[in-house]
Amino acid sequence: MKCNKCGKMMKYSKGIKFNEYSIDGWKCSCGEIYYDPEQAQKVLLLNKLKKEVLKAKLGKIRSNLILRLPRDLEHAFSLEKGENVTIKVEDDGFRVVAA
Ligand SMILES: [Zn+2]
User: Fold this and answer.
1) What share of the chain is helix, strand, coil (3-state, %, to 5)?
2) Average pLDDT, integer, range 84-91
3) Spatial separation of the C-alpha atoms in residues 3 and 45, rounded to whole Å
4) Has this prediction a pTM greater than 0.85?
5) Could you tell me which residues come within 8 angstroms of residue 70 by beta carbon, excluding any fewer than 6 positions away?
6) Cα 26 to ligand 1 centroid, rounded to whole Å
7) Is 36:25 a contact under the CB 8 Å cutoff?
8) Residue 89 — very low, low, confident or very high, per pLDDT cuts 50/70/90?
């Protein structure tokens, strides 16, 4: 990728700091940085979600309760059907951790 500022070729780098996350992107010797748009979007979505109180609905399939997660969560954490998550019980409820 070419730098818009100085025209030099940019170097693909992993683990560039973006907010409090590390994502991939392109760095130029002039100091210009381009972030991987897909990863940057996820970070922005995560930051947005952190400020919100998310609601989810419980459903039931046969005898099992299922937790329906908001779509934004699915995208922010790249969750997919069939994936395993970890559940941690805490004093005030439980926490679902994307593995
Ligand atoms: Zn540059």
Assistant:
1) 20, 40, 35
2) 95
3) 26
4) no
5) 54, 55, 56
6) 10
7) yes
8) very high
Q: Extract the tokens encoding 97.
A: 């951790």
Contact 80, 73 (CB under 8 A): no
Nearest Cα to Cα of residue 24 among 13, 38, 10, 8? 13
Å from CA of 37 to ligand 1 middle: 18
Q: 89 by DSSP, 3-state: which?
A: strand
Environment of ion ligand 1 (residues, CB < 5 A)? 3, 5-6, 28, 30, 32
Q: What pLDDT sits at residue 98?
A: 82
How far away, in angstroms, is 16 Cα from ligand 1 center? 16
Burial (0-12, 13-18, 19+ Cβ within 10 Å), 61 = exposed
* Distance of CA 46 from the midpoint of ligand 1 (Å): 29
| Domains in the chain: boundaries | 11-45, 57-98
